[in-house]
Amino acid sequence: MPDWMTSMFLAAEVSWPMLWFYFQALFFLLFCVPSYCTSCPEQCQCTNSSEATAVLCSASNLQEIPRDIPKDTMFLKLDANKITAVPNSTFRHLAHLQEIDLSKNAIEKIDSAAFKGVADGLRLLDLSGNHIQRIPKEALVNLNAMIRLSNNPWHCECTLQEVLWEVKLDPDSVNETTCQTSVQEEYTGKPLLHILDSRFCNMHQKTTDVAMFVTMFSWFTLVISYVVYYVRHNQEDTRKHLEYLKSLPSTRVPKETISMIL
User: CA–CA distance from 5 to each of 11, 16, 18, 21, 102 (Å)?
Assistant: First the structure.
């Protein structure tokens, strides 16, 4: 066999296994099954076991919730970061979530559908130590989880009262969950549990009723004013018309004409 053919054969023997390896790697990256392709978000640590998957992102300087959290995650630690908001459907693909820790962040806004998709299995939601003043009732009322709301600057009003009627507060953090501001000054600085029997929503209803009454009265006044103006305007036109008729030269109408008109 010529030397050049031997060299090609030896080269082929060495290169084909490498080519096959590269082909397998490329196939895995492009077509791998999702359950075998789970990746851990950057700046986080993931632990996997036969029973649970935990994603640990505590104190990772995150400014928003990662989007590439594995679908089989059951425990999600996002505490001690710089997260400012929880947008709608953030956890919609995480059907196995049992605990979400968002404590010690800078959260100010929680959208109404922020926890959509995790309502049934969620057992604990920690929102303590943030900057939350208000929260939509729809965001929490469908959750079966124990919820921690302590150490937030809550503004106590009717909406918050309706939330508290529906959710299950963590009993260990209830005394640390207080009203920083309130529509009723006497509740400022007091635990949220004190507002459960207050009349925030009654006050809200009364305010709404008064606003509706004022609006209806304004419309009624406007209609009456228009009717009065319309009548007076017609009276003025009639008076001017009569004065005009009086100013016309008088004419005698034959009796026959009057009889025909009658």
Answer: 10, 16, 20, 25, 67
pTM above 0.70, yes or no: no
Closest Cα partner for 147 from 181, 182, 102, 105?
A: 102
In angstroms, the CA 16 to CA 10 distance is 10
Q: What DSSP designation does 252 have?
A: P
Q: Which helix (H) or strand (E) holds 139?
A: helix 137-140
Task: Report whether 195 contacts 164 (CB < 8 A).
Answer: yes
Q: How far is Cα 70 from Cα 51, in angstroms, rounded to an integer?
A: 15
- In sequence order, which residues have a C-beta less than 8 Å from that of residue 149 and are 6 or more positions away? 127, 128, 132, 169, 173, 177, 192
In sequence order, the β-bridge partners of residue 101 are: 77, 126
pLDDT digits (tens, 9 = 90+) for 7-63: 444 444 445 443 443 344 333 334 444 444 558 999 999 998 877 899 999 999 999
How does DSSP classify residue 34?
G
186-to-14, 123, 160, 189, 195 alpha-carbon distances in Å? 84, 34, 16, 8, 10
Task: Single out the residue of 88, 99, 6, 16 nearest to residue 52, CA to CA.
Answer: 99
- 141-150 long-range contacts, CB within 8 A, separation 24+: 141/166, 141/167, 143/115, 143/119, 143/167, 144/119, 144/120, 144/168, 146/170, 148/103, 148/124, 148/173, 149/173, 149/177, 149/192, 150/174, 150/176, 150/177
